[in-house]
Amino acid sequence: MSAQVQPPSSSPLRRILFAQESGLVLVIVLMMAGLTFFGGTKNKRIADPLKPGEWTVVQVNKFLDAENLVLLAKDASFVAIMAVGMTAVIVMGGIDLSVGSIYAVAALLGAMALRALQSQWGDQVAPAYLSIPIGVGLCCLAGAACGALNGSMVVGLRVHPFIITLGMMAVLRGVAFVSTKGQSIVGFPESYTSGFFKAQFFGVRPVPVLVMLAVVLAGHLILTRFLLGRRTYAIGGNETAAQYAGIPVGRVKIIVYTLMGMLAGLSGAVSLGYLGAATSNDGMGYELNVIAAAVIGGASLTGGRGTALGAVLGAILIQLITNAMLILDIDTNYTQIVMGIATVAAVVLDQVKARFLPSGR
Question: Which structural domain, as residue segments, surrounds residue 244?
Fold first, then answer.
């Protein structure tokens, strides 16, 4: 006899009224409106359309300025890609503190490979059909290997993932420092940086956002339409019951941690192409932002609940908070305080909903 496990569901009315995503969308819209109207303006030097070759100074809205929006979208993309994977880990009842270090190590390995590739081509630019598969592929493989190691130790040693991933975070960060000796790695093919990840279309650089959207769609489909997703929810809801239902709990955990590592590597590959450099400090502190994005997006730390869309909305909200402090000239040291309060508030709200709306899962 097999048990059919489904992701959390509820009535349409309950989903509309109490879905974490609905509240996040409202908060994001209100914040964007507030920053638009109260963020103020700044002087910006632009090319004069009436006098070719000359420049003019105009006043632009600080928040709606194209440079600010591109920065906001780019930073949100790096975190959101990893937050989708973190949501799956948290839904399963786990945690991964090593994502920032995996991000750094994967980016460094990709950077070394890309620099070596470009050196082979000398003055010519290495073609995109080589640079993109090598850079992205190596970053994702390195991340997946680290994630698989995390999952294997969690399952094999039966130690809480907090301890395993905390140790992995320290080990990988040390590897990043030792391998680079504190030096930045640059010299990538332009076909990987300005030719692809930083390519401009109609004045914007959309590739990081497009990658993020693809990850969100894939994450949503896996969690809601695939057997792996249903098993992930089942394990987070009740691991013992999932085992009795015949679900291979250990295998699912290893797969989910592997996917988490792969997405951390993918985020590293995207940042590598956009920033054009890799350092041992890359991704430091990202684990807190990624976990916060997942939790603010509705992932329950007790397991069994969370969505890919919520993770991305959580990442956008976090970056909006950071962006608002920059625009309003608030000391950025307060950013972590505000994000901590937002994360705690999200956890409290989750507990309140679980207590008073038990059927809302």
Answer: 12-360
